[in-house]
Each structure stands twice: as C-alpha cells, then as structure tokens.
Design goal:
About 30% of the residues lie in helices and about 35% in strands. With about 240 residues, it is of the alpha+beta class. The radius of gyration is 27 Å and the shape is elongated.
Length: about 240
C-alpha cells in the first residue's frame, strides 16, 4: 500500500510539473470577452519594447491613457504628435480586435493610426504589452530597406564630373506615375542599380494596390540635367 501511495504521489508531482512547463512555454491565451482587459489604463512605464499600464478608475486629464471597451471600442487619450508644453490631451476613438491569441489590432483616428500590441500580461492591476509590427508595416519596412540600398549605390561615388552622371525615375505613386527621380553615376554597376530600381518600382506598385494606399495625382516633371555640388549630385529641374 505504501508503495502504491508513493507511486501515486510521484505521478501527480510529475503531472503537475509538466502542466506548469507547458503553460509557461505557450503564448498567453486571452478570451476576447475577458473582463480583465476592459477598463481604463494609464500611468505608463517603458522598458525596452514593453509598455506597462496600471489600471485606473478613469482616464487622466493631463497624461496618456487608453481604454478597452466592450464591442470592440477603443479610446486613446493623447496629446497627439506635439510634445511641446503646454500639452492638450484629446480622446481619439477607434476599434480593437484580436487577430490571434494575445495579439490585438488597434485602429485609431490619432496620428499613430493602426498598430498591433502583443499582450504579455493582464491582471486586475496591470497590463503589459509589446509593439508588434503588422504585415503591412513589415512589407513597408522591406520596401524602405530596398530604397536605402538604391540610395547607398547612388551616393557610393563622389560627384566630380556631371558628364558621368545620369538620372532615372523610381517608385510608383498610388495615383500613377513615378514617385521621383534619382541620380546615378556611370561608374557604378548600372545594370544592378537599374534592376533594383525596377524591382523597387514594381514592389511599391503592388504594395499600393494591396493596401489601398492613396496619394495625390500631381505629375512629377523629369529633371533636365545633373550638376555636381560639394561632391553630391543635384538634379536640375
């Protein structure tokens, strides 16, 4: 009997320990109807990429705060993009929804626009989140990385003789036409450079269509020549 009791105790210990490990390794699972998320959150503190909010009874009048409301309503009290005192705080109403376990997508009318938070912890007293880039933001970052490569190639040669320089249209405005023009030297690998321009232009066009990007329909006139100024190319219009 003692042997069976000891075996049962050992089994329960291993079982409970295994459950604890599994729970720790999984992402936080949050019920969208969980009342813990609803309410007012303020008194923010920042550590690396994490933001910690404290639950409050109401949104503060003179500092940042947010509120998750039932039926997907989100309220952000913010001073906007201006950080110069005296600050005036305004409520921006938006929406929120879970796109997957613990990942909430927020859309607001403030200057921030749409963003995503990964909820790391939520309790009666505290909410801890981490900014997580959306699919659109990740694609836009890749687009900007490609443009940086183009710029680096363009400026890799010092401009000393304008006769060695040319220019090409790049990018795609949502309304049609190129976004602008960029100069390049004949002394670089022009084949690779122009291929990057073509790739960037098509990628931006696809991005605009996929995400419904809106732009003005003004026409960018091409430059007439390139001049060298202080070692850098300058487009002349």
């Amino acid at each position: 009997m003692k042997t069976k009791t000891a075996f049962l105790s050992l089994f329960l210990t291993v079982f409970l320990f295994s459950c604890e490990i599994n729970n720790q390794s999984n992402e936080l699972i949050i019920d969208p109807n969980d009342s813990l998320l609803f309410g007012y959150w303020a008194e923010t503190s920042y550590e690396d990429e994490q933001i910690t909010f404290t639950r409050v009874n109401s949104l503060p009048n003179d500092s940042y705060g947010i509120s998750f409301v039932e039926k997907g309503v989100f309220i952000e009290r913010s001073s906007g993009w201006c950080g110069t005192p005296p600050l005036t705080f305004t409520d921006y109403t938006g929406t929120w929804e879970f796109v997957e376990d613990s990942l909430v997508k927020i859309s607001t009318t403030s200057f921030i626009g749409d963003f995503q938070w990964r909820i790391l912890e939520v309790s009666e007293e505290k909410l801890v989140v981490k900014r997580e880039l959306s699919e659109k933001e990740l694609e836009h970052r890749s687009l900007m990385d490609l443009f940086n490569e183009i710029q680096n190639l363009s400026y890799s040669i010092s401009c000393s003789d304008a006769a060695d320089w040319n220019f090409v249209a790049y990018g795609s405005k949502a309304c049609g036409g190129p976004k602008g023009y960029i100069a390049y030297s004949s002394k670089i690998d022009t084949t690779a450079f122009l291929q990057k321009i073509e790739t960037y232009t098509q990628t931006e066009k696809d991005f605009n269509i996929k995400w419904g990007v809106i732009s003005d329909c003004s026409i960018t006139n091409p430059p007439t020549s390139v001049e060298c100024q202080n070692g850098f190319p300058k487009l002349i219009y």
